[in-house]
Design goal:
By secondary structure, the chain is mainly α. It is built from 7 helices and no strands. Keywords: Nucleotidyltransferase, Sigma factor, Transcription, Transcription regulation, Transferase.
């Protein structure tokens, strides 16, 4: 069973990546923060007594379900707002998708300001292209390659088959590679 400290350490370690996933999904900072907070609260309240090894998978499943719930609520809210008002809500706000990226041990860290600028420009292009992916492809791509989950874990978190995960990841990879190649970026 996970101790309070293990649960706390896990939530601290996952918060930035979870926020980024939610931002990619909903494109609204306040909503993304709410989604991550809700997912963390659900994990702590309902699954805090589970072994620490189970926490990453449980959290990802809770996070993805919370994002889906957000879209369901938004759809219903939009329907009623449209029916009851001739004014449509304007929920789109400008936001900066870039955040500082903490480097892991052994990862490439640019040494010169020019290298840092190039890296930030490439990351901005990659993030923009990830935002343009269809929701299921983006979800599979982020879980597999950002959260480093295997196919079975990703399928469990997404609530679909392993074959669907492979298909979504393959399509996302091809789309991203073509988009980056079209912009002259080779990795």
């Amino acid at each position: 069973m996970a101790s309070q400290r293990e649960l706390s350490d896990f939530l601290i370690a996952i918060e930035r990546r979870a926020f980024k996933q939610a931002m990619f999904a909903v494109r609204n900072e306040e909503s993304a923060l709410d989604i991550v907070q809700d997912a963390m609260m659900k994990l702590a309240e309902k699954y805090g007594d589970r072994p620490a090894a189970e926490l990453p998978m449980l959290f990802q499943r809770i996070l993805q379900n919370t994002i889906r719930d957000y879209y369901r609520r938004s759809k219903v809210r939009s329907l009623w707002t449209t029916l009851l008002s001739s004014l449509s809500p304007n929920n789109e706000e400008d936001h900066d998708p870039l955040e500082t990226i903490s480097s892991e041990a052994g990862s490439y860290s640019p040494q010169t300001p020019h290298d840092q600028l190039q890296q930030s420009q490439v990351l901005a292009v990659i993030e923009k292209e990830i935002e343009l992916l269809p929701a299921r492809q983006r979800e599979a791509f982020l879980l597999r390659y950002w959260e480093d989950m295997d196919v079975a874990e990703t399928a469990s978190a997404m609530g679909c088959s392993e074959g669907s995960v492979k298909t979504h990841c393959s399509r996302a990879n091809h789309t991203l590679a073509a988009a980056l190649k079209a912009k002259g970026i080779t990795l």
